[in-house]
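B., you asked whether I could sanity-check this one before it goes into the benchmark set. Here's the sequence:
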Amino acid sequence: MALKRSSKISSAFSMSSMTDIIFLLLIFFMLTSTLVHPNALKLLLPQSANQTSAKPQTSVSITRDLRYYIETKRVDFDEIEPMLQAKLGEQPDMYIALHVDESVPMREVVRVMNIAKKNKYKLILATRAK
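And here's what the prediction gave me:
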């Protein structure tokens, strides 16, 4: 009496589940890469041991040759306040990241801080880790 196996094991490999995982990973990396806002300006930031977890809505940068930037757009000092008001509006508790080269005189930093105080924006001084 010959016994036959009713179910045969298939040696074929289905790639459909693997492609699903690849597409999910691709979507994940595409979404997370849009959340990163790199600062394209080369600045030597001062060192600090403390870091903040607040997320700023925009950034103001001052280079060593005293050029002002809002995000990556170069502006004159007189244009900073109107551009910040247009970008952030009159909303209280808006965070601005201040990226300043460590060789910039303190009076230039205070001028930007006065603009933030006048408009009731919160300012975060960007530093590099120790």
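One thing to flag: The helical segments are 16-34, 77-88, 106-118. Otherwise nothing jumped out at me.
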